[in-house]
Amino acid sequence: MCRAPVGKARGNPTALRRRSDGLEVENIKRRGITVKIATWNINGIRARVDGVLAWLRDCSPDVACLQEIKSDDGPFPRQVFEDLGYNVETHGQKGFNGVAILSKLPVDEVSRGLPGDGSDAQARFIEAVFSVDSGAIRVVSLYLPNGNPVNSDKYPYKLGWMERLETYAKQRLAAEEAFVLAGDYNVIPEPEDARHPENWTRDALFQPETRRRYRRLINLGLTDAFRACTAEPGHYSFWDYQAGAWQRNNGIRIDHLLLSPLAADRLQSAMIDKQTRGWDKPSDHVPVIIELDA
DNA sequence: ATGGCTGCAGGATGCAGA
């Protein structure tokens, strides 16, 4: 996995081009047959539609997993994305939550809702299956509950949701599928995933029990794509709107793409597209993007 | 700082987010 050269060159095409001709040719050949998969919590599709369109034109992901569309399926502006060449699958909810998958690839299958609780009305999970050269790949767009405050019923809801996600992952692993669980996990996995971890110790995103359940998911055999490519601390995917968090780089890494072994074998690169946080009217999250061998 | 912004619903402010 992550065959890009170590160090600064990782995930940096410019650096790759400086290397020997042989490797350059090899990389160009590889880059021609990759599938680019991104996840982005956009914090409201109506407030972000122009920004998302600009980002899609620039980044051109094959599959874009969106969270917090804060829109029902009907009002979701699907036409503007179809005009860019994307298939649009939503699992919407009025006012808050809501997830979507945009794809240039044809959608072979789609299903909505995390299995395991028929009474759960919150729209936080959608999955789609695509055909690529090497076979099928399943992509999930998930929005794991925030869970704050910890002493409310929101925290047990979060833990229950993580339990259901673990059950789902076990079943998919047993089927030996290539799959990607992409989304806003609302989990800070390790202290190095926060600029000020000490400020998060009482928060649902960094509770020992939250981290333990996230590790249990990883320990099933899933790979955190970004961490597989970048060991160094200080890379974040969320900066609060308040208190100048972006200007102070007071961020946390809570948006993740977890890969099944068959998907991890094909991992070429992973990066965080933090420039979008500096835009006018930004989302408080930024896209995380991976490339897999197709 | 007792969340200091932001988005959304609805038509004023309350809720939710992280």
Provide an overview of this structure.
The chain has 294 residues and is α+β, with helices and mostly antiparallel strands. It has a single domain, classed as Endonuclease/exonuclease/phosphatase (Deoxyribonuclease I, Chain A, 4-Layer Sandwich). 27% of the residues lie in helices and 25% in strands. The protein contains eight helices and 14 strands. Strands 3-4-2-1-14-13 form a six-stranded mixed sheet. It has a six-stranded mixed sheet with strand order 5-6-7-8-12-9. The two termini are 13 Å apart. About 7% of the residues have low confidence.
Instruction: Give the tally of β-strands.
Output: 14
What is the subunit arrangement here? Answer: single chain
Q: What is the radius of gyration computed over CA atoms, rounded to a whole number of angstroms? A: 18 Å
Distance between the termini: 13 Å
Low-confidence stretches: 4-25
Q: Tell me the count of domains.
A: 1
Within the CATH hierarchy, at the fold level, what is the topology? Answer: Deoxyribonuclease I, Chain A
Tell me the CATH superfamily: Endonuclease/exonuclease/phosphatase
Shape assignment: globular
